[in-house]
Design goal:
The protein is an alpha/beta fold and about 250 residues long. The chain contains seven helices and ten strands. A hairpin with a 5-residue loop joins strand 7 (about 155) and strand 8.
Length: about 250
């Protein structure tokens, strides 16, 4: 709990990944992928319950071994490529409502973002709870750097590049002179449950940003992502020391 308000962590992990079969239970740096968000949630100061929503018996078994609860198997209709994350969260929340257990906050952690730590969860929950008067949710974002839209182009019918933004090539300047932009990444999502059920999304006019560095925003979709994130995990001390020197 945080200031008397309970926190439910939900980790969606369906079977049948097409891009990387068995992704959610594939080993990453000595732990199955689904185990990383489970540990981040379990080590949080504030999370009351850690639940994995899956349709897959093998994932359920691994999730339980990693310390999560799997109180139900997700219906197959909520485990399709077209299934929305909100529908999965709503299903889990309604399950607990039926057993007369109501939570104040919902924390969503995804196995595809395994670099999130318990300290991130705690800091994000603290920031959201401290700003309840202006915000109902908080989501991970990271600063747009090399992919800033000022440097983006399309290719016209003649096969030539054309600036994506209407200002043209004359407005392309130094990266350090550009306005800061941020993109949604997958490290964490937290919302008041009543608002989440009403809005059906974490993104709205009362959403705070939880800013993470570029290295932490890596997500796993394919094998090369596993390799990159494993390298980051093995070099966390060096990365942290580098950022301490820069700050």
């Amino acid at each position: 709990m945080i200031n008397g308000r309970s926190v439910l962590a939900i980790i969606p992990a369906r079977g049948g990944s097409k891009g990387l079969p068995g992704k959610n239970i594939r080993e990453l740096a000595g732990r199955p992928l689904v185990g990383w968000p489970i540990q981040a949630a379990k080590r949080s100061t504030y999370v009351d319950r850690v639940v994995v929503s899956t349709d897959d018996y093998e994932i359920a078994k691994v999730a339980q071994e990693q310390g999560a609860e799997v109180p139900f198997l997700r219906p197959k209709e909520l485990a399709q490529d077209t299934s929305t994350t909100f529908s999965v969260l709503e299903h889990a929340i309604e399950h607990f409502k039926k057993v007369e257990k109501v939570y104040e906050y919902c924390l969503l952690l995804e196995p595809t973002s395994p670099l999130t730590q318990s300290s991130d969860v705690d800091q994000a929950l603290e920031r959201l709870d401290e700003n309840r008067d202006v915000a109902d949710s908080i989501v991970g974002v990271s600063k747009v750097e090399a992919a800033h839209p000022t440097f983006d182009v399309t290719i016209n019918e003649k096969g030539l590049i054309k600036p994506y933004l209407p200002d043209g090539f004359s407005k392309i300047g130094r990266r350090q002179d550009l306005d800061d932009l941020y993109y949604f990444e997958g490290s964490l999502y937290i919302s008041k449950i009543t608002v989440l059920l009403q809005k059906k999304t974490f993104y709205h006019e009362r959403t705070l940003p939880y800013i993470v560095p570029r290295w932490m925003a890596f997500e796993i979709d394919e094998l090369v992502d596993f390799i990159c994130i494993e390298a980051i995990m093995k070099n966390r001390d060096r990365i942290d020391a580098h950022h301490e020197v820069k700050s």
